[in-house]
Amino acid sequence: MSAFIAVPVGVTAESGTSAHGGRSTYNAMWLSIAHPGLGEYYLKGWGSFEKCPQKKFWLGLIPLYGWPGYLQVKSAIDARNGRTNDDLSFQ
Questions:
Q1: Which pTM was predicted?
Q2: Distance from C-alpha of 85 to C-alpha of 56, rounded to nearest angstrom
Q3: Is residue 64 part of a domain?
Q4: Please, are residues 72 and 32 in contact by the beta-carbon 8 Å criterion?
Q5: How far is CA 53 from each of CA 4, 7, 57, 69, rounded to the nearest angstrom?
Q6: Residue 49: its pLDDT value, please?
Q7: Domain coverage including residue 64
């Protein structure tokens, strides 16, 4: 017997700290959990796709390395801390 529990997560503009033009780093973290690079892209103000961290975004399509996996965690931590780089390593 398996059970599925849905937990609603409310993300508002007021939650978390703000960086990069008043954008929430908390929201950016959740976007990066959805797909690596999206949180950083959000912090940069969306717009041109060139603002999106290309390595994190495209390598995020590789199963277990990108999503779910290493890059998902790396991107979420970077976004939560307000970093918008495309560095793939923890330093």
A1: 0.74
A2: 9
A3: yes
A4: yes
A5: 34, 30, 6, 17
A6: 92
A7: 20-80
Q: Are 43 and 79 in contact (CB under 8 A)?
A: yes
Q: Do the domain assignments include residue 1?
A: no
Tens digit of pLDDT per residue, the chain (91 long)?
Answer: 555 444 444 444 445 676 667 889 999 999 999 999 999 999 999 999 998 999 999 999 999 888 888 899 999 999 999 988 888 887 6
Cα-based distances in Å from 15 to 2, 62, 71, 85: 33, 31, 24, 23
Amino acid 20: pLDDT: 67
Secondary element (H or E) of residue 43: helix 38-43
Q: Which amino acid is at 87?
A: D
DSSP letter (8 states) at residue 66 = T
Look up residue 72 and give its two tokens: 């998902």
Residue 51 lies in a domain: yes
Is residue 90 a part of any domain in this protein? no
Specify the amino acid at residue 6: A
Amino acid identity of 68? P
In total, how many domains does the chain have? 1
